[in-house]
Amino acid sequence: METIEAAGHQRDAGVPDSAHMGPTLPRMVLGAQLRRLREARGITAEEAGETIRASHSKISRLELGRTSFKRRDVADLLTLYGVTDEAERATLLAMAKQAGMPGWWQPYQDVVPPWRQAYLELEQAATVIRSYEPTFVPELLQTPGYARAVIRSVHHEAPQTEIDRRVELRMKRQRILRRPDAPKLWTIIDEAALRRSAGGTATMRDQLRHLIDIAQLPQVTVQVMPFSRGGHAATAGPITFLRFPEDALPDVVFLEQLTGGLYIDKSADIAHYWHVLNRLGIEAHTQRETRALIDRLLRDM
């Protein structure tokens, strides 16, 4: 993918920035650092767990950033790991405090299930977002009208106020594409998603035009997987791959399901999904072919 710059775009008020991502990213950074310190001292997870009166499985969850930190536990672990430098201890303890702060999405917690919360923060923190979407236009590229129609189809019994809040949250997430430090977004959309009407003809026309417009951003790449390709490497469902700025953080693959989500963080599995997305990028229409297909769909409406 090309190196991108988004100079000239002003940060919208209320857009989560790199200093206010919520607790997930600090937890991951701190957890990775604690793991390196433990391994450098040759201390087992069981020994570390005994120090903070916890099981080795809790140490594993802490090191993966999957649970919150108590400041006292972090202080005890740093002592166990031989960290005596006051500046280093202060930095890591401050990170532990940040890891306990509320997420930026907290005002919408009534419409964000627990399994989705970490993803919302990781998405805001990512420097690279790659995805494959077989059914709908990716959420970061949806228009308000299209988003409303899709959300209504999933939450068909929800009151209008809830639908409005879900749409509002989705639109706020999209602001990352206009930030000065916007992530590189590379998405592959199945042709079926573009032919599946959501909200009626006018809504779909607006959505397709929006895809053309958003693809003009230098950090955004949109490709379509055409029907003519037949079977391909990602027939099982949607895939989202996230990469982060800190070298200490591993890549994450998120697989969303109807009532939950699966976070993949094992190196071998992540490498497999990266390979799958690369294959899809080769098999899908080029950006020029994608634009031609969308133009044809618009003419046929």
Give your account of this protein's structure.
Helix 4 runs antiparallel to helix 5. The chain has 301 residues and is α/β, with parallel strands linked by helices. It is built from twelve helices and six strands. A six-stranded mixed sheet has the order 3-2-1-4-5-6, sandwiched between helices. It has two domains: 75 residues, lambda repressor-like DNA-binding domains (434 Repressor (Amino-terminal Domain), Orthogonal Bundle), CATH 1.10.260; 189 residues, Endonuclease, Chain A (2-Layer Sandwich), CATH 3.30.870. The two termini are 33 Å apart. A hairpin with an 8-residue loop joins strand 4 and strand 5. The protein is elongated, with a radius of gyration of 21 Å.
Write down the oligomeric state. Answer: single chain
Write down the CATH class of the largest domain.
Alpha Beta
| Order of adjacent strands in the largest pleated sheet | 3-2-1-4-5-6
| Helix amount | 40-55%
What fold name stands as the CATH topology of the largest domain? Answer: Endonuclease, Chain A
Radius of gyration: 21 Å
Q: Provide the number of structural domains.
A: 2
Major beta sheet summary: 6 strands, mixed
Number of helices: 12
Question: Which features characterize this protein?
Answer:
single chain; 301 residues; alpha/beta; 434 Repressor (Amino-terminal Domain); Endonuclease, Chain A; 2 domains; 6 strands; 47% helix; disordered N terminus
